[in-house]
Amino acid sequence: MRALVVEDEPALRAQVVEALRGEGFVIDESGDGVEGLHYACEMPIDIAVIDIGLPGIDGLELVRRTREAGITVPVLLLTARDGWQDKVEGLEAGADDYLAKPFHLSELIARLRALLRRAGGFAAATLRFGPLQIDTRAQQVSVDGQVAALTAYEYRVIAYLAMHAGETISKATLLDHLYDESDLRDPNVLEVFVKRLRQKLDPSRTLNPIETLRGQGYRLALTRSDDEPARPSPPLDR
Amino acid sequence: MMNSLTRRLVVASTVVLSAFVLLTGLAVSWSVHQRAEAAALERLQGLVYGILGATDVSADGTLSVRSSALPDRRLLSPASGLHARIVGNTGGRLWQSPNVGVALPDSQYGPIGEWRFERLSLNDGREARSLQLQSVWELEDGQELAFVVHVIDAFDAGQNPLARFDRSLWTALSGAAVLLLILQWSVLRAALGPLRRLGRDIDAMTRGERDALDERLPDELRPLATSVNALRARERRRHVQARQLLDDLAHNLKTPLSVLSNLGIDTVTEQSVRMQAAIDRYLQRAAAESSHATGPALALSPIVDRVAESMQRLYPRHKVRIHNLTPATLRLRAPEADVYEVIGNLLDNACKHGAQRITLRYDAPTATLIVEDDGPGFGPGDPERYLVRGTRADRSVPGKGLGLAAVAELVDAWGGAVRLDNAEPHGAICRLTLGLAVVEA
Question: Please, are residues A119 and A3 in contact by the beta-carbon 8 Å criterion?
């Protein structure tokens, strides 16, 4: 998953970026509203964390213009002002959630994951596709209850495909969402990951979770199981 | 009593006017009386001359008066009150008018040609004017006959036409005075009208019904109203600035605190959490203290709609239905941010605990906003404990526990109160009496 972080306080931004990278996110970062807007519109981000008080254009304006540009990725606003009037304004501008400073990094990450699940249409933290289960909180994949030993990048590939289950994702897109610009981006590496995933998740070749469409990309070929039962998971405090 | 401007003016003008009327009356009365006396004197002098003209003295000194030549017929009539006599200096009564029937005072002698004019009280209770002229008649043989011509005009004190004049004068003057006083008071009332209006405006401003004094006042009062308005505006600006500064300070601390608390160093995290709690606590208190039921009136219903929309964005999975049944005419006089805080906290509280349906309505007779939801409710025990800062309704949900307590503090600052109850079969009812904040509904 690729995340945009726009926060003008360098120390805080560094903390957030580091924490997100630790969670497997690929990061685009900026300390400026104008630059942030550029990244939001140009980069293939999956989610954005935006501070309201920014130089250049402020966070609310950034969100508004991002929405105007047709970008629909979830946006979480960081705000030092946690009055309800400000929250309402932020949500009306197009944000999907807000987090008041000071905050725990763990809470930020939990909310981002919740937003991503919501965006993918998933109600619960665990994505189920029949025998295949992906626990996005623990970042574990299990087949028929057996946890598969995946590397970080292997997990990212299967998780991304699962979030866009049924969609054909091109190699280029996968590379964009899984790798920083500075990393070595070799499409062949992806092929290796997919091969290894198939071996680990489907040794008997009965499940065929990942489908290769020649010249187009990969697709998670499994169908989603029902979501978790009606009771909503413990809501996050605001 | 002298504290009232109106009363001062009324008393002063009444005293002045009364004194003026009194003095005028006295002056006029005195003047008229003087004139009347002078006229009476002239008339009596005329009578004396007339009597002298009708007097003959024979060669032997016998004085007689021709009755037919008397100047005034009244001298012949007994009841007329007009009497005359001529008394010789040697003491003898030489003549008297035919109508004398009552004892008249003695005549007095004096130098030739001397007039003596006086007012007398007679024995029978009547008043009289008395005029005497000392005269002398030269006889043919060179002897002189000295005598006094004495005329007396008696009248009943009560029949005095001057008394009637006096009565009329005082009646008319009193009437005029009363009329003038009434007019004076009306004029004063009208003149002091702007002052009264100013007083009413200031009262309204104190109660929060007005923002500024009406400056359409007479020249003398306008500077006062202008200054008060300017003073109030300055105070409000300063107040807003102070609150803004406090807000800015608090929020500028939040980012560094965020960084510190995420360093993972226990002591630092602990202390920064304490700092965060202190900031929140004092911000909350400052907000509640400066939240008065004053300022421009806000419509509540649109605010509820906006916050409800936000709830849909924040809790899309819950599919909460929020029914805004508050009247479009309900307006509140309270800071906008604080109204958002109250509504936001109430709805967020309901949504976060799993309500599916929230209803907001307004009971006009009791000026109460009622927020009902079908969530789990407050559980057993006294729901009011959640209005105390620090208490958490649901221990499984992490958080600061400030929501309902913040609502209670703000509503309290507006002069209202919050009541929490459980609903049947399950759910929560929050009743907010809005106190001074309600403008109209």
Answer: no
Domain count, chain A: 2
Of B91, B54, B84, B96, the C-alpha closest to B71 is B54
Contact A175, A26 (CB under 8 A): no
**B398 contacts on A by Cβ (under 8 Å):** 237
Q: Reduced to 3 states, what is the DSSP secondary structure of residue B307?
A: helix
pTM for this prediction: 0.62
CB A155 within 8 A of CB A174: no
Q: Percentage of chain B surpassing pLDDT 90?
A: 17
Q: Which phi and psi angles does B406 have, rounded to 5°? A: -65, -40
Residue B97's identity, in one-letter code, is S
- Do A73 and A161 lie in one domain? The reply is no
**Complex ipTM over 0.85:** no
Distances (CA, A) of A128 to A99, A136, A195, A223, B221: 29, 11, 21, 9, 80
Contacts of B399 in chain A (CB under 8 A): 237-238
Number of Cβ pairs < 8 A linking chain A and chain B: 93
Long-range pairs for B168-177: beta carbons < 8 A, 24 or more residues apart: B169/B25, B169/B28, B169/B29, B169/B32, B170/B25, B173/B21, B173/B24, B173/B25, B174/B21, B176/B21, B177/B17, B177/B18, B177/B21
Segment B145-181, tens digit of pLDDT? 888 888 888 877 666 777 788 888 999 999 998 998 8
- Please tell me whether residues A87 and A7 are part of one structural domain: yes
Cβ–Cβ < 8 Å for B359, B350: no
Range of the domain at B244: 209-290
DSSP conformation letters of B115-126? EEEEEEE-TTS-
pLDDT category at B22 given cuts 50, 70, 90 is very high
Tell me, yes or no, if B349 comes closer than 8 A to chain A by beta carbon.
Answer: no
Residue B314 to residue A15, Cβ atoms within 8 A: no
In a domain, B225, yes or no: yes
- The range of the structural domain enclosing residue A180 comes to 126-220
Residue B69 and residue B117 in one domain? yes
Q: Is A150 in the same domain as A95?
A: no
List, in sequence order, every residue forming a beta bridge with B134; answer none if it has no partner: B148
Q: How far apart are CA B96 and CA B86, in angstroms?
A: 6
**Is residue A111 located within the same domain as residue A130?**
no
Q: How far is A47 from chain B (nearest CA, A)?
A: 16
Q: What is the residue-averaged pLDDT of chain A?
A: 86
